[in-house]
Amino acid sequence: MPVLFTVIGYALLTAALIPVWQMVSTAAGLAISQDAPVFTSELKSIYDPAYQLQTPVEEESYIRIEEIDLPTAGTQYGNISCEKIGLNAPLYWDDTLEILRYGAGQNIASFLPGFGRILIIAGHNSTFFNVVQNIETGDVIRIDTNYCPYEYEVQEVKVYDENDLEDLLVDHLGDEEETLYLYTCYPFTAHVGRRTDRMLVTAKRISGYDVRWKASQYER
Amino acid sequence: MKKIVSILLAAVLVLSLAATAFAADGINADEEALLVKFCAAVDQYAEKSPAHAMQFKNEATSALMKLDLDAAACADLSAGIDKVVAYAEANGITTKAAAKDKAADVLALVNGLVAKYGISVSLSDTLYATVCFTAADGNGAANTDKASNGGAKIVKQTGVDMTATYAVAAVLVVALVFGMAVVTKKNLLSNN
User: Which of B61, B153, B163 sits opposite A29 (nearest CB)?
Assistant: First the structure.
């Protein structure tokens, strides 16, 4: 009986002290880690918050791709934000585990804003994308880049199994309509264990200039 | 076959590193034709998985935006794609196992084709299956970029923390054992 009450007691303590466990687990993780912690990052940035908005060419309302620097993997090229929910994160090209520690990451099989194709952006639900749990249909997500700011209006917020989400995104890789797919792990409240669901936010572009990037787009 | 196709992609991507600072120049008519050929090769030789085929096509499209290839360079690269595809056919590379066995040979073939541009290609990061390529830019600085090797999923882990899970479990076990020891000791003392 004493052992049973001990177990129950510790279970209740665990439930009550869940916010504290993250701090404890981080410290314990360092203690049991077999690798030395890395405090430096090899991530780069080409993003300048004080950018100048590109002036459209010949009143055609588009930006020439020659005026853009394209990021390589591991480079911050912009910033993603949503004022209503308090989202504000640096946006990197590529979505490795290291990158997701420092901000939001964009899958390299997708395209940059303004290119009229799919954008796939991920973030950790415990850090930068924790506020995504409060996003709603109609909210506006903004992506600032060196060449133009872009805004996307949320069309749908839905939870998927990770395998179903994989299939959905694959089906849309070839779409020729600019759609932002932003996802993070779900639920937001669990602190341990592997999460197999993802919250997906689907948004359509509502502002920002087109980027002309291939010869056939200049044909009249 | 995914490795073969990814190396085909690398053969396209490596040339992007010859440009300075990855300044974009878009896709000209010759590059569009090259992209069409690349996509046809991907459709023909990629494994029966449209997921990976579209990933390769999109990444090749992005890479060609960084290139400034004239007609001669596009012809050169097109011939390179033909050589790699011919090698795959001649060596019966139709299964994943065969592709893995021959990956080093195909890599050597591709590196032979792009060496004149001062570029090297390698396969690394087996966990996420990436193709890495390094070349010097116009200032002599080494630039490295990557493409997926067709094995990486699009949807990443954005919440798992197994280190935290094990650490928390370890702390709970230690606390439980300590608690049991305390209770047992008290019982022994009370019995005495």
Answer: B163
